[in-house]
Amino acid sequence: MMSRRAKLATCLVFVAATAAGSVVRAQSSSEDDTTKLAEEILSCSALEDEAARLECYDALAQPLLGLEQATEKGDAAALESFTGTDDWNSEVLEIQRPWRLVWQNSGSLLTVELWTPQEEMLDVIGNQIGQGGGRSDVLEPGSYRLAVRGLGGWNIKVVSEDSN
C-alpha cells in the first residue's frame, strides 16, 4: 500500500508532467524538460520541512507562470506592475519590446483587456475565473492601455519577453 506522501508525489508528478507537457509544446522545448520538471517535483516532495517543500514547489511554478524573479544577469523583470481591487484602467503604456501580461487573482473573477491609446478595444489578453494566476501570449511592442475588470483583489505585471 502506498503512503500518503508517495500518493501525493505520484499525483503531483502526473499533474506537473501534464501541465509541463502543454507548456513544453507551446514553447517548442524538448521532452527532456518534462522529465527534468518531474524529477524536480519528486525532489521537492522528498523535503521533510513543510515550508521548504512549499518554497521548492513555488520555485518550480514561477517559470511556468512567467513569474521569474530578476537575477544579477538582468533577466526579465516586471516592466510595469499594478495591484488593485475590482475595476481599473491604466494610463497609456509605452512598451518598447515584446512582452506578456502575468496575473494573480485573489478574487472570484479577473479579465484584462488590451486597448489602444485612442480607447478602442483590441483584445482580451487575460482571463481568470476564481483564484489563481496565468499569463498571456507574447504581444508586440507599442502603445497600449490596460483595463482590468475584476471582482476582488488582483496583481498584474507587464514582463519583457525578449527572444534571446
Describe the structure.
- By secondary structure, the chain is of the alpha+beta class.
- It has 2 domains: 4-65; 78-160, TM1070-like (Hypothetical Protein Tm1070, Chain: A).
- Helix content is 33%, strand content 35%.
- It is built from 3 helices and 9 strands, in the order αααβββββββββ.
- The chain has helices at residues 4-26, 31-45, 50-65, and strands spanning 78-85, 88-89, 93-95, 99-105, 109-115, 121-129, 132-135, 142-151, 153-160.
- Strands 2, 3, 5, 6 and 8 form a 5-stranded antiparallel β-sheet that branches. A 4-stranded antiparallel β-sheet has the order 1-9-4-7, with no helix packed on it.
- α1 runs antiparallel to α2 and α2 (31-45) packs antiparallel against α3.
- The longest helix has 23 residues, at 4-26.
Quick recap of the structure?
With 164 residues, this protein is α+β, with helices and mostly antiparallel strands.
List strands and helices in order, with pairings.
Elements: H1 4-26, H2 31-45, H3 50-65, E1 78-85, E2 88-89, E3 93-95, E4 99-105, E5 109-115, E6 121-129, E7 132-135, E8 142-151, E9 153-160
Antiparallel strand pairs: 1-9, 2-8, 3-8, 4-7, 4-9, 5-6, 5-8
Helix pairs in contact: 1-2, 2-3
Taken as a percent bin, the fraction of beta residues is 35-45%
Give the CATH superfamily of the largest domain.
TM1070-like
| Structure classification | alpha+beta
Measure the end-to-end span. Answer: 48 Å
How many helical elements?
3
Quick one: biggest sheet?
5 strands, antiparallel
Radius of gyration, in Å, reads 18 Å
Q: Name the poorly predicted regions.
A: 19-30, 68-76
Q: What's the average pLDDT?
A: 79
